[in-house]
Design a protein that fits this description.
Shape: globular
Order of helices and strands: EHEEHEHHEEEHEHEEEEHHHH
Strand content: 15-25%
Radius of gyration: 22 Å
Distance between the termini: 55 Å
Number of strands: 12
Number of domains: 2
Helix content: 25-40%
Strand order of the largest sheet: 3-2-4-5-6-7-1-8
Structural class: alpha/beta
Length: 332
């Protein structure tokens, strides 16, 4: 289905129609003692009171599906069904959807499916939104994502000029297509879709503090792995494709942010370190293809990363030394 356009003056009406019959959860701002708007919270609200374009809420989306306290006693009664009323989540960002994907893998991906989670997930309508105001602590693209959602939603909203010029809305599921057809909206023009692309490009540049010519992704198939006799497959992932200089800068930036976070909080996680070493190798591969005069400053930054990683466990620094030798760089 084509991307549709929601005029600003119809936004509340359209959202109310899409979420009709569901509890609507979205962002509202907590008032500070000074009277100024404070942190966003995810609360039960209405289409008229929704606040969009904020940072992530204090409460994670996990709270809707796996709350810290839940009444499970009734489930063991005869013919009992988990209590899971229909819910609509409006304003979820790409990082929220990433979290939902992980929860789905944990509670629905194995032989046993959590009946409470399964029912709540089935009754959840996800209306996501492009992140147009990323913060300097954001790390969505470290995991192969972008500030705008690409999957995992029923409908996705793209605000134009922060919503002042309306919204583009795109379906991501059969349920989303049905709801969008019932809303009877006009198709978005090519000019509006180009504006959305420009906004998304600007958001990516904000996350990394660099200029990019375009934001493209290529889906990579996860590798087959064997562990203790069990054959498994790593999840498919997406990687950026584009200008070599920009990609090298982004890859080095990934490594710096990741190692800085681990060093600051004392994180010792093998999976996290494996991802860091892979990104270090990707950075080296990208730098190796650059002109010689572009390599020294990037390599100096990677060398700082490597030195810090020698303080970590799991042989992270040694793995990076091996990668340096593989690409012919001298690991001091």
């Amino acid at each position: 289905m084509a991307v549709k356009f929601i005029p600003r003056d119809r936004f509340s009406e359209v959202i109310a129609g899409i979420t009709k019959g569901r509890q609507l959860f979205g962002h509202q701002l907590e008032a500070e003692p000074s009277g100024q708007a404070g942190r966003p919270h995810m609360v039960l609200t209405s289409a008229d009171d929704l606040v969009l374009g904020t940072a992530r809420a204090v409460e994670p989306v996990k709270a809707l599906l796996f709350p810290p306290r839940d009444d499970l006693g009734g489930y063991f009664a005869d013919k009992a069904e988990p209590n899971a009323p229909p819910v609509a989540l409006v304003g979820a960002t790409a990082c929220d959807l990433r979290a939902l994907k992980v929860l789905d893998q944990v509670f629905l991906g194995g032989e046993f499916k959590d009946p409470y989670y399964e029912k709540k997930r089935k009754n959840l309508l996800v209306v996501s939104m492009d992140c147009t105001l990323p913060f300097d602590v954001c790390f969505c693209m470290f995991f192969g994502d972008a500030p705008h959602p690409s999957e995992g939603y029923d409908l996705n909203l793209s605000p134009l000029a922060g919503g002042k010029d309306g919204y583009l809305v795109e379906p991501g599921s059969e349920q989303g297509e049905k709801l969008l057809a019932e809303a009877q909206l006009i198709d978005a023009s090519d000019a509006l879709i180009e504006r959305r692309a420009a906004q998304r490009k600007e958001a990516v540049e904000q996350v990394f503090g660099v200029k990019v010519n375009a934001v493209n992704t290529l889906r990579q198939q996860g590798k087959i792995k064997r562990f203790r006799g069990v054959v498994g497959k790593r999840p498919d992932y997406k990687k950026a494709i584009g200008q070599p200089e920009g990609l090298a800068e982004l890859a080095v930036f990934y490594c710096e942010r990741a190692v800085g976070f681990s060093n600051d909080v004392g994180l010792q996680d093998e999976g996290y370190f494996d991802a860091l070493v892979r990104m270090f190798g990707q950075a080296l591969k990208t730098i190796d293809a650059l002109p010689e005069d572009c390599k020294p400053p990037l390599m100096a930054r990677l060398d700082s990363v490597r030195h810090i990683c020698h303080n970590f466990g799991y042989g992270v620094g040694d793995d990076m030394d091996d990668l340096l030798a593989e690409y012919g760089f001298d690991g001091r």
